[in-house]
Amino acid sequence: MNTPLARxxxxxxxxxxxxxxxxxxxPGFTQAxxxxxxxxxxxxxxxxxxRNEQPCPVIDVCESGVTAPPFAAPGADIRNEVPRxxxxxxxxxxxxxxxxxxxxxxxxxxxLLGCSFTFEQDLLNxxxxxxxxxxxxNVPMYITNRECRPAGVFSGPMVVSMRxxxxxxxxxAAAITARYRKAHGAPIHVGTPEQIxxxxxxxxxxxxxxxxxxxxxxxxxxxxxxxxxxxxxxKLDLVITHAPGYMFVTDVRDExxxxx
Amino acid sequence: MNTPLARxxxxxxxxxxxxxxxxxxxPGFTQAxxxxxxxxxxxxxxxxxxRNEQPCPVIDVCESGVTAPPFAAPGADIRNEVPRxxxxxxxxxxxxxxxxxxxxxxxxxxxLLGCSFTFEQDLLNxxxxxxxxxxxxNVPMYITNRECRPAGVFSGPMVVSMRxxxxxxxxxAAAITARYRKAHGAPIHVGTPEQIxxxxxxxxxxxxxxxxxxxxxxxxxxxxxxxxxxxxxxKLDLVITHAPGYMFVTDVRDExxxxx
Lengths: 260, 260
Fold this sequence. Notes:
Oligomer: homodimer
Largest sheet of chain A: 7 strands, antiparallel
Number of domains of chain A: 2
Number of helices of chain A: 7
CATH class of the largest domain in chain A: Alpha Beta
Distance between the termini of chain A: 14 Å
Helix content of chain A: 10-25%
């Protein structure tokens, strides 16, 4: 892989030069959600991901104490190449450091999970508008009435993101995103928000309210906030994640993620 | 799910009425490889499967001490609904019992992995010949020069099965099997056996030698013997599997496995 762009970007994060959200950075390279937790929970969490692949697509796992994602970014260091981290203890946010060099220990397992940035870029490439990007807002997200398949200490509802899509482009948007099963895949629902437990699209649970224009249909994709909710509900003694929007940039090209 | 056929078949296994291989039984229902191992190895094995999905597609996992596959066969008992088991200690075959009621303990985790029976039926349904079934032989299998991605104590080469396919049907066979990513998916290689380290197709590592007719191309699929080899190499203190050909019949319909 010729990956200077991803490596350069991570280097600028590591040296403190880049301290902002990662959206739009190192274009063409897959960005990932980060979850780091004690090894005693690693089987349960991997199984939760296996059972709920659409919200929790596993791109790579660093085994206990390993700091370089062996397949997605073998030269990287997960401890200082994310611009902002969150450290939770017993479900409570403790701090948001810009590195975890002093927090990472041998007993921690790191998971990289796919993120919708990958397919949003491909939607744009194919002429499908992505409203929240147009408006420079955060994507609207909702807690649904669909329960994830539980695994060990992890359980919770599926959270979805919503993008309003012109009616005649819904099939195309579904086909494009279906290619990226490591980035949430095809929509889990189209239209009729009430069927998945959303009473009012303007009342978002996370992100910003949507702007839906005439002739557009709300299309719902599984969302990476799902595993975050399951983790917070489990109130583990320690979890480290990326801060929302401050992702880890992998060496995996977006187009390769389709076959990852 | 309306699954009387699968349930009836498992009941006939449980009461000792059915003691033979399962090929062709409960047609339309997905059969699975069974791997049962101590929970201390469960994370490593699940990660090995996650990293090597084509040879090791996970259909379901029973958490420690659980005897009913929660999603693939919630009413089943994994301890006596496989016609023949194999018990290995430290990599050595100890016995081949017809139930494991006295061997199964609370600390054991059960994995169900997809099997090529699923896609072979679909190939036949689409008019693509499956030679070893025609000839009532076992499928030819080979150890390749491709290493699996290791995980913890598990590592080893990818093992493939081979089916000779008429040249003009290779694309169709690839497209059909690609639908079943939980049953090994698309071929990993077509033609040129030497490129994957197979010097002589007549010298099989497992199964029976092939009969390749004029105009046919050897097509190679990832094979469920891959995780078995990785497990044997790891010489775990205890592993229980199905005996080759004596599979676990799930409640999952073959056509549903495409979306599993």
